[in-house]
Design brief:
Helices cover about 5% and strands about 55% of the residues. It has about 400 residues and is mostly beta strands. It has a 16-stranded antiparallel beta barrel with strand order 2-3-4-5-6-7-8-9-10-13-14-17-18-19-20-21. It has a two-stranded antiparallel sheet with strand order 11-12. A two-stranded antiparallel sheet has the order 15-16.
Length: about 400
């Protein structure tokens, strides 16, 4: 009861504060065709999760900073722009105040034409609409992380360093992104029963990814059947005045990124048979629909869905001190669904994630239902959400329940 009272008070105070904050950003004109923009994102959460207290039995009761980001972006000259964003996620969650502060995005863009733009730097992988959405503009409280999967060691929060070509055509209804990135490099692919990378007698990984240092290729195309959905970071809800309907498809491929067969070591850890690596591959298709209606467009139905297919090679599975080679826990198929109905500033949202792993008993099912209060749209809002998730063998795995409230401020 005491925690419920505290949470209620926090929501009331946050609502008053957020409603009083103007939605603006700082823009500095530094010269002809040269400017600098400064934005800030703050998301604060109160979260109560089943069996997540230190005793692994009771609910956790956490108050923490979900995201704290500084955004710097602007133009250096005609056709030359940049974007940089910092991140400090889950600051203070479970009493952890040692969360790193790092640069999450950092890239330059050179625009020759709407149909031909080159980005270089640390860039969001252009795989699916679900993973390139900006955290600021999400409709659900957070991403569908259970079904968005990249090869271990091949990314930093879904970003990778490389070069990306992108552009628009047909009045920006058609969009493409095609990138060449580092991907997985020299990652230990064989792990013991404790999850520690297995080394040989020389102290080197018994089998490492990408020995020939092949790059990764990732891309996405989309077409706007209705309206325009052309932003670099698509939104989960647009508070639109006209309907938007977008369909898209993407892929992710890298040679030598994952394990095919394991190396064999003798009792002295000397490699007697060298294992093999092979490609990783993934494909996705997605749809997004945003329909406003009513006299003042104060009603809005928002729907998005996506299908995912992953082939992330093989891994070692341990039982009774012996190992066997099985499909990676991240190989399989996944789907996500998200639907919301907004009336004025209130919107209930329902999300479902499902993953069917190629490895036995590596499945996932997550259901989340929430209520959003759009005080100043994406500039200031409060979201509440109740979720339940089970992983592993879905026929016997227990549901783990979570209740979360989030206040967002963006200016």
């Amino acid at each position: 009861m005491r925690y419920g009272i505290q949470l209620t008070r926090a929501i009331v105070v946050a609502t008053v504060l957020l409603a009083s904050v103007p939605a603006f950003a700082w823009k500095f004109e530094l010269g002809e065709n040269t400017n600098l923009n400064i934005d800030y994102l703050l998301q604060v959460q109160a979260q109560f999760q089943e069996k997540s207290a230190p005793n692994k039995t009771d609910y956790s009761k956490d108050f923490f900073i979900r995201r704290s980001r500084i955004l710097l972006f602007g133009d250096l000259w005609k056709g030359i722009s940049f974007f940089m964003e910092t991140e400090q996620a889950n600051f203070g969650k479970a009493g952890n105040w040692d969360v790193s502060f790092f640069v999450q995005d950092a890239f330059m863009s050179f625009k020759a034409h709407d149909a031909f733009i080159v980005d270089v730097g640390m860039i969001l992988l252009p795989f699916s609409r679900a993973n390139i959405q900006g955290a600021i503009g999400l409709n659900a409280m957070d991403y569908h992380t259970g079904v968005i999967r990249f090869v271990d060691g091949s990314h930093k929060v879904w970003r990778d360093a490389g070069l990306q070509l992108r552009g628009y055509a047909n009045e920006k209804k058609f969009a493409y992104r095609l990138g060449v990135f580092n991907g997985a490099q020299n990652m230990g692919l064989m792990k013991d029963a404790n999850g520690v990378v297995m080394n040989d007698d020389a102290g080197k990984s018994a089998l490492s990814s990408n020995p020939e240092d092949w790059p990764r290729f990732t891309g996405r195309v989309s077409y706007d059947i209705l309206g325009v959905d052309a932003g670099f970071f698509p939104k989960g809800i647009y508070f639109a005045s006209e309907p938007i309907l977008t369909v898209g498809a993407g892929f992710d491929y890298q040679p030598g990124a994952v394990m095919d067969t394991a190396s064999i070591l003798d009792q002295n850890k000397k490699v007697t048979t060298v294992g093999k690596v092979r490609y990783s591959a993934a494909a996705t298709a997605d749809v997004f629909l945003d329909i406003p209606f009513g006299k003042d467009k104060d009603h809005e139905i928002v729907v998005q869905g996506a299908f995912f297919w992953y082939d992330h090679g093989n891994e070692l599975k341990w039982a009774s001190g012996a190992s066997s080679v099985v499909a990676s826990k991240n190989s399989g198929i996944g789907v996500l669904g998200e639907v919301g109905y907004r009336y004025s500033f209130i919107e209930p949202v329902l999300c479902v994630d499902y993953f069917n792993g190629k490895q036995a008993k590596q499945d996932l099912l997550a259901v989340r239902g929430g209520l959003n209060f759009w005080i100043r749209k994406h500039g200031a809002n409060i979201k509440t959400e109740f979720g339940a998730q089970k992983t592993g063998d879905l026929s016997s795995a227990p549901w783990i329940k979570t209740f979360t409230t989030q206040a967002q401020l963006f200016f």
